[in-house]
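Support case: zinc ion complex. Customer-provided input:
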Amino acid sequence: MRTNRILVSALLFLISSPSFSKVFDAQINMVNFPQEQEAKVHKAIELIKKVVLSPEFKDRVLSHTYEGKKAYVNNKGLTNEEIYQLIIDGSETLQPEKNGRMDVELELYNNSSTTVGYTYPDTTRIWVNTKYFDRYTPVQVADNIFHEWLHKLGFDHALKYSQSRNYSVPYAIGYLVEELAMKHYRP
Ligand SMILES: [Zn+2]
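Agent response - structure generated as follows:
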């Protein structure tokens, strides 16, 4: 029947449309990871997925303020709503399709510096320092991975510490993920 066919196409459209997906997924490719460390990343990712889909995360991202204004520092000219949408869409600068998924490649390295992790604009890879990773809880790893992933969405921050840096997208939302992940974490 014709009406049925229309209904089916409408449903298929809804299912395939990313803005309607109630899932926030993650595809993590791990390079140079021993099994134990791999398990910690999986726990961190589970926490991230729970947090990002929570109404509280949405509220907090949208209501974030800097100097009395609803905005982030280094926001690329985007509103809080637009930043939230980029996250939910999983729309990275290098993989902009709205697949509702974090696409991340992680590599462990060891260095005595105070750098927790880093990445570059021209790569999907994120480097994580074992010096911190090994003593971090999955909640802290969730913060770190999400912080670095927000760089993949094109958000930056000052290199040196400053008070305003904490209001940048990677720091502010990374800390938020850590705070909310704490509520879901069972060691
Ligand atoms: Zn950063």
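DSSP finds seven helices and four strands in the chain.

Case will auto-close in a few days if no follow-up is received.
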